[in-house]
Amino acid sequence: MKNYENKCLESWKQDFEVDPNDSEKFYLNVAYPYPSGAMHVGHGRTYIVPDVIARYKRMQGKHVLFPMAFHVTGSPVIGISKRIANGDEKTTRLYRELYRVPEDILNKFVDPMEIVKYFSNEYERVMSSCGLSIDWRRRFTTVYPQYSKFIEWQYLHLMEQNRVIRGAHPVKYCPQCDNPVGDHDLLEGEKAEIVKFTLVMFNWGEYKIPCATLRPETTYGVTNLWINPDVTYKKVTLDGLKWILSPEAALKLSLQEHEITEEGEISGRSLIDETVSHPFCGNVKILPAEFVDPDMATGIVMSVPAHAPFDYIALRDLQNQGKYTEIKPISLITVPGYGEFPAMDAVEKSGITDQNDPGMETLTQEIYSAEFSGGKMLPQYGGKPVKFARDEFAAIMLEQYGSLVMYDFDNRDVMCRCGSRVFVRILKDQWFLQYSDQEWKKQIHEQLDKIDLVPSEVRTEFERTIDWLKDWACTRKVGLGTHLPWDKNWLVEPLSDSTIYMAFYTIAHKLLKIEAEKLTPEVFDYVFKGEGDSESLPLPKETVEDLRKEFLYWYPYDFRFSAKDLISNHLTFQLFHHNAIFSEDLQPKGMVVFGMGLLEGAKMSSSKGNVILLEDAVNDVGADTVRMFLVGSAEPWQDFDWRSELVSSTRKQIDRFWNTIHDSLEFKDEYPIDNWLLSRMQERITNTTDALSSFQTRQALQEAYFGVETDLKWYRRRLPEGVKGSSVLKDINNIWIRLLAPFIPFTCQRLWEISGNNGNIAFANWPVCESNKVDVGIELSEELLTRTVEDIESILKLIQIDSSSITLFVSSNWKYDVFKTIAQTSDRNRVIQEIMKDESMKKRGKETTDAVKQITNLIHKLPPKLVTRIVESGIDEKAVFESTKEFIEREYNLPVNIVNSDESTHQKARMALPFKPAILIE
Q1: pLDDT tens for each residue of 882-909
Q2: What are 415-449's pLDDT values in tens digits?
Q3: pLDDT tens, 455-499?
Q4: 243: closest CA among 289, 214, 204?
Q5: What pLDDT does residue 622 have?
Q6: 560-616 pLDDT, tens per residue?
Q7: Looking at the predicted structure, is the pLDDT value of residue 301 above 90?
Q8: Angle at CA 542, nearest 5°, toward 541 and 546?
């Protein structure tokens, strides 16, 4: 099959290159990759799912654009190059052993552009080997000069609109790279957020001892400080004042616009039982606490045991040893559902025994959330709700009590791809995208309402992101990328140059042929905004008119596919930028959000070696197996788990499909059951189409593969003895191959040709349900027979005795009347009253009431569509079983009797229900 895959790839090479025509377009795109290492199967799913949709839409007659490019902006590839140049063993081993880069190529990786060149070519080769139907003419990287001109044009507009401002803000910063970093630059801590602490300044002689807090309103309730006795702290002069800090805190604050001079050291142990003071809480002691992390904020913690569970339980532990028993919690806040001391209430009720209990984190969050949302300061502390008092207290302390602001991460394990630790730094003269602009946020909220989001549940996450987004540092000093057009000292950072490149795709293949110098802002204004005069531009009029025409043909994009972890940045950023740059009719139409990838239950990570390379998987089991597994293991928005045994079973499923089609090419003759198979296939077509239209690729595959396979299994069972198929399978196979073509194109292409068809199956017509082939009557009959056969088999397995006969008692007509009444009523609680209005039903008394209960339960268990069909079409059960009697007898090698339940006095006969005959096996 591998040889055939290569043959297909060669013949398909230019088939997916598209130019505007009179057909209806469908433009989908996916987050472009950063080519700094080999693709793994997690990457594969990211691109294969959109390809399935692209192929489906193409077969529906849409003119489909599916482009690809490579994102190389930023410093990751530079960091990799430096580590290789410095002989870093871990990095070199990763590229030599896991990614299998040839030694002569690896030696060139001291130049970062060689890494980009090698892996972008590898990505295209591996993507193609997976059968991705991409228009590769549009390929570019984000350092191409034409793309840089496009980014310059975008930022000139953002500057004109005052969307870009200059200022000093906290950013994630790598000292080794001497650069701000974004989530894409991180090896660890991608989700870490910058937290703003208020430093509460306690006095100890001539020194200030700062404690960082997110809850400055609780300072009145401080009963003591916590310090780690095993840590050696720093004595420093900070901005002219003497402070005591942990060494880690001193480094962090030195990056946040403070001048720090180290003067000496002091052990934490020597500070135990010392007294410090603050105007809000008076004199308090410093107590020992090994749980205090010197790397968390200042490395010294203020204790509020009335409102902080950790503080309460730590103090309780000491007091249980007979120490510091004079210290009592101080209540500051009333909280609905809690007593005078909320932290004490929560700890004691939860049964937590010590501060190391893993439940403490959850408990702390519960208390903090309850106090913030519903808490109210006591009258002597202002009486305001906590949510308002917090900011007021912070402002007062900053203005009047010497407090300062300190920034730190909520997660301390934040690492740059270069291997260095990342810190929070205040950068001066940095450029920021003003995502905090409330009017801009309002516009994006309104725009979001018009966008089709899949799954719909992610809308809440988008709305939350829009609300909490702050100003974003959009420039760097180091790395690859585009210089700001008005300040060449800065480069546009990776996430900030990846917001509207979907528009660039539409004409990339033409722009890349034009000298970059000729792509002036005025050219882009005309092409993308329709502004200006096409005759006054540095390009021929026909060229810019052609560019604009093609852009307008494809734009706006119909759907973008990307990972759910990008909602908090890229996916939301691009909404802001589209809103700022393009007209209302060119805004994004839809987005599909992906889940994450696991390998044997663990998160995939190239840096940790926990991956299966995509190329290896394709070589081992074939491209179609990889595609079918990745699409069929979970819906796109769900997490998937690559498990070897399940991948192997997928390979066997494709083999069964191949054999089924191949073995049925020469069947002839016709049989009554053929009509049932044709009818069932119409439903499979409808269900597969509906699922793919909703991006439910797993559900679509369930219908298109497993559903059809199940139907064929029953069909073969129902054929006359010794017969394996009929001429109808030619039509069935033609449909089945096309239904599976988006999922397993290589296999389907081969079978398409073997079946006597020509051309690329990607352009074959998608199957459409033919209503004239839907036979509800025969489907009902076979459904009844299938369910009955299953019941017979269950009984035979249960009784485990030699049997002599099978009797089927079919339901009485009056029970069918009850069935229809119950099925059509809107209030099933009152249905018995309606049925008893009928005198004939009333005369049956308990028999009727029992039947109502049994039939109601039966209806609840049956699929709603089946219930509707039974009601609307009806069925002659006895006729069905009489016509299939020979089949049932052949199946079980037993004589079969068909009896109307009304004509039998056997107790079993009374158990017959509509569509569920009573079965007697003797």
Answers
A1: 999 999 999 999 999 999 998 998 999 9
A2: 887 778 999 998 888 899 999 999 999 999 999 99
A3: 999 999 999 999 999 899 899 888 899 999 999 999 999 999 999
A4: 204
A5: 94
A6: 999 998 999 999 999 999 999 999 999 999 999 998 887 777 776 666 667 889 999
A7: yes
A8: 120
3-state secondary structure of 634: coil
Distance CA(363)–CA(353), nearest Å, equals 13
Q: Which residues contact 223 (CB under 8 A, 6 or more apart)?
A: 281, 284, 303, 304, 305, 311, 315, 327, 328, 329, 330
| Per-residue pLDDT tens over the stretch 86-134 | 998 989 999 998 899 999 999 999 999 999 999 999 999 999 999 999 9
CA distance 413 to 53: 38
**Burial per residue of 350-384, b for 16 or more beta-carbon CB atoms within 10 angstroms, e otherwise:** eebeebebeebeebbeebbebbbebbbbeeebbee
From CA 862, how far away is CA 873, in angstroms rounded? 16
Q: Strand order in 918-921's β-sheet? A: 896-900, 806-810, 918-921
Cα dihedral 178, 184, 188, 190 sign: positive
- On average, the pLDDT of the chain sits at 92
Coil/strand/helix, residue 173: strand
Q: In what order do the strands lie in the sheet with 559-563?
A: 63-65, 25-30, 559-563, 590-594, 452-454
Helix and strand numbers, DSSP H then E, in the chain: 35, 32
Q: Which two tokens stand for residue 855?
A: 């039939």
Q: Judge contact between 594 and 639, C-beta under 8 A.
A: no
Beta-carbon count within 10 A of 585 CB = 8
The alpha helices in 517-597, defined as continuous H runs, are 521-524, 541-554, 570-581
DSSP 8-state symbol, 693: H
Q: What is the DSSP string of 329-381?
A: ----EE-TT--SSHHHHHHHHHT--STT-THHHHHHHHHHHHHHHH-EE-GGG
CB of 647 within 8 A of CB of 629? yes
Give the pLDDT of residue 831: 80
CB neighbourhood size of 21 (10 A): 9
Rounded to an integer, the average pLDDT of 654-659 is 95
What is the pLDDT, as a whole number, of residue 185?
Answer: 74
**pTM, rounded to two decimals:** 0.84
How much of the chain is helix, strand and coil, in % rounded to 5? 50, 20, 30
Residue 447: the pLDDT is 97
Q: pLDDT by residue (tens digit) across 793-823?
A: 999 988 888 888 999 999 999 999 889 988 8
As given in the structure block, the two tokens for residue 465 are: 């992101």
Cα–Cα distance between 171 and 472 in angstroms, integer?
8
Q: What is the DSSP string of 635-670?
A: -TTS-EEE-HHHHHHHHHHHHHHHHHHHHTTT----
Amino acid at 861: K
Q: Please give the pLDDT value at position 607.
A: 62
Which residues on neighbouring strands pair with residue 427, listed in sequence order? Answer: 169
Distances in whole angstroms, Cα of residue 112 to Cα of each of 118, 363, 422: 10, 48, 22
At residue 625, the pLDDT reads: 96
| pLDDT, mean of residues 173-184 | 79
Which residue has 């699929």 as its token pair?
863
Chain centroid to Cα 711, Å, comes to 33
C-alpha closest to that of 407 among 701, 170, 692: 170
What are the backbone angles phi and psi of residue 913, rounded to the nearest 5°? -125, 160
DSSP string, 44-89: HHHHHHHHHHHHHHHHTT-EEE----B---BSHHHHHHHHHHTT-H
